[in-house]
Amino acid sequence: MERWWFALKNWMRQRWDEFDSFRECVDA
């Protein structure tokens, strides 16, 4: 269970980074 949670958090962080860079592109 812990390993699944770690993988999920890792995936979410990557998605969040992509979303952040996408937002910066839109703002620019």
What are the salient characteristics of this protein?
28 residues; mainly alpha; 1 helix
Description:
The chain is rod-shaped and about 40 Å long. The chain has one helix at residues 2-27. It is built from 1 helix and no strands. With 28 residues, the chain is an all-alpha fold.
Which bin fits the share of residues in helices? Answer: over 70%
Strand content: under 5%
Span between N and C termini? Answer: 41 Å
Number of strands: 0
Give the uncertain stretches in residue-range form: none
Number of helices: 1
Overall shape = rod-shaped
Radius of gyration: 12 Å
Biggest sheet architecture = none
Query: By helix and strand content, what is the structural category?
Result: mainly alpha
Layout of strands and helices, then pairs:
Elements: H1 2-27
Provide a short characterization of the protein structure:
By secondary structure, the protein is an all-alpha fold. Helices cover 93% and strands 0% of the residues.
